[in-house]
Design goal:
Layout (H helix, E strand, L loop, with lengths): L3 E3 L2 E3 L1 H7 L4 H15 L8 H9 L7 H10 L9 H9 L7 H12 L7 E2 L4 H12 L6 H15 L6 E2 L1 H10 L27
Helix pairs in contact: 1-2, 4-6, 6-9
Length: about 200
Amino acid sequence: MGCICSTSVSWDPTLLAEQTPFTVREVEALYELFNKLSRNKDGLIHKEQLQLALFNNRNKQNFFADRIFHVFDLKRDGVIDFEEFVRSLGVFHPNALVDDKITFTFRLYDLRHTGFIEREGKQLKEMVIAVLHESELVLSEDMIQVIVNTTFKDTDTKGDGIIDEEEWKQFVQKNPSLIKNMTLPYLTDMTLRFPSFAHED
């Protein structure tokens, strides 16, 4: 086995395959996909590129896309390198652990990086609106507020006004539909085909 080299950094596909749900061949295919998405001399994916790939939109502000980028950017350096790309996509693999999917969604909703999902402010409501928009659901402001309030009431079992990761895990286990979009079946056949956005120029 060789290494995958990118901008003077090498990644061992065998090591990434051991640490993620992907096979070595899938990691190698993901490297090709990564290069198609990055389209930069720096060999990194920037926020606009991920937004274009996931949402077919480069310019429009998208709160959900911002959150996805932030969670993929494990090193918090404003770009996604190949290792971050593989590790983050691994959560969406059909063979990924459910607990990893739950943790990923928790991090999406932990808007201020406090280790808690907080009700205060309008960001949580904006996130719910963004998730509903991605699901092509349009609800009134009042209905969205009811969803936020009901979710907090059902999830905040300690009654302290915040949702910790354990409370979130228990809530998702009771409501598995919350993570149904966290599995992308095509990730198991990355050597056969790429998602449609990978072919766009």
